[in-house]
Write the structure tokens for this entry.
Amino acid sequence: MTSVIVIGAGVIGATVAWELASAGHRVHLIDARTPGDGATRASAGVLAPYIEGAPASPLRELGRDSLERYDEFIARLKDDSHTDVIYDRRGTLELAMTADEATRLSHDAATLARDGVEAQWLSGAALVDLDPNVSRQALGGLFVPIHGSVGVSSLTMAAVTAAVERGARVMVETGAIDVSSQGGVTVRTAQGTLTADQAVMAAGSWSSRVTVQGADPLPVKPIRGQLLQLGGSRGLLRRVVWGARGYLVPWPDGTVLAGATVEDVGFDERTTSEARRSLMEMAVSLAPALANADIADVRAGLRPRGPDNLPMIGRSQAVPGLIYATAHYRNGILLAPLTATLVRALIEDESFTPPAPVRPDRHGTRT
Ligand code: GLY
């Protein structure tokens, strides 16, 4: 058994804490605010590696691996937390609104099918048969049935609950200031100092603001995402609908999440009227029935982006007991099950090496 401090209780930190506590480790999960208040807020929970990751890219490969774990991950999470998690695997429908998009998406369908991924190019009537409220202006669409979505708040809260059920201790409003290697790993916080055998840096965009003794600041920057929750009617959309300017995610209660902006504005978590306008316009262009929908909620979160948009998962060079699990950018929710598995392997096996595309030292900084 190892003692571990997990810094950050977003979806990554909470999932890692649950995985480690389930394996019998003694876990302290700490957060500068409350669980799920950081990048997690910017996420609509879309699980779509074949949209987010380009063909043959590491992101697509990592996302495919993590998506394969999702059914089992959610089943285990519901069992361990005794709570429900919103989870839907009815696929994504990516609409082509221009001839160029139609060419690209029909080509993608053929490439995916050749690679053994179930995917269909649908044109005209077939599209409307599948989802009657998508725009009739669409020239066609790419249907990927294995994609889906997950309710991010329900997922994060379930992971925190499950971690606690397995013995983890959660400390809120306990922001990490610095990490050093005195007596194992020492994490200094505004509330005092904690020491454990190992620590996990899962503070998302804020990871660069925690000083790691002997290391360069982590090259992670915040990228704001704003989302609208739109009042809809149950069944208005049957699955995630994706377009060139954003996406729509139907929820079981009939509301639709419309996301998301991608804004390089530093640590500014405010919402804006400009985003409300452009997201509403995007939503109506994909599903005209949303034209009269109320805006039930607007939120913003800061996605943690590294130089190559891929996460950093692996050991620190400067503080040997510290493991990074951060910089997941647009895909923290999708990559959570895989990340938790990799972090557990790093905690339990000194010789374990994570896949090269996620190793934190690849950017040439001292980690
Ligand atoms: N995962 C999509 C986004 O971050 O907007």
Remarks:
- The helical segments are 11-22, 49-52, 58-81, 99-114, 125-130, 152-165, 273-286, 332-348.
